[in-house]
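Table S5 (text form). Sequence records supplied for joint modeling of the two-component complex.
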Amino acid sequence: GAGVSQSPSNKVTEKGKDVELRCDPISGHTALYWYRQSLGQGLEFLIYFQGNSAPDKSGLPSDRFSAERTGGSVSTLTIQRTQQEDSAVYLCASSPLAGLNEQFFGPGTRLTVL
Amino acid sequence: GQNIDQPTEMTATEGAIVQINCTYQTSGFNGLFWYQQHAGEAPTFLSYNVLDGLEEKGRFSSFLSRSKGYSYLLLKELQMKDSASYLCAQGLHNTNAGKSTFGDGTTLTVKP
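The corresponding structure-token record, covering 226 residues in total, follows.
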């Protein structure tokens, strides 16, 4: 595809359930980022993958959050035992290399925890 | 966003010029990005500055002063479609290279 894609676009779940959010980065981009954005707020960094290096997980808010990137491409963000405060838009972005390159964002997944 | 400061809201008139300021932490600096985000949409890249001075791109220009830890985004000939949030982001060096730190964004409202 031409851009970053994310699925699902919307997810409504009940408190305590686990959810998985998927990101397909632009082909050939080695860097992949996950952010969280609450309504009217800025971007909150969650996790960053760069090639085969160990991911930077320093932004994950709790141990209920985890992410994987398989084969250097697709990434999955998993939230276990969801809480209402997890409700937000989860944005994925990719770039050819980290730091100096612009990030290309996907459309996001809007997560609502009831 | 941590260490990135920009105004929360600004209002301007169609056809006018508006300047959105951003200050950042100079340590580990590796470039300054501006993104535009319309309501309900993902951010899109506008500009990138790594050297001091003004970068012009059509109606949008971005300025950087590394010694002052300061940047601004200048929008000329404002149009209604320019109403959006404008995010300032700092690229970082080395092991932090992935953590481009984003500001909380400036919501610009363009009025007729």
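Note: The radius of gyration of chain A is 13 Å.
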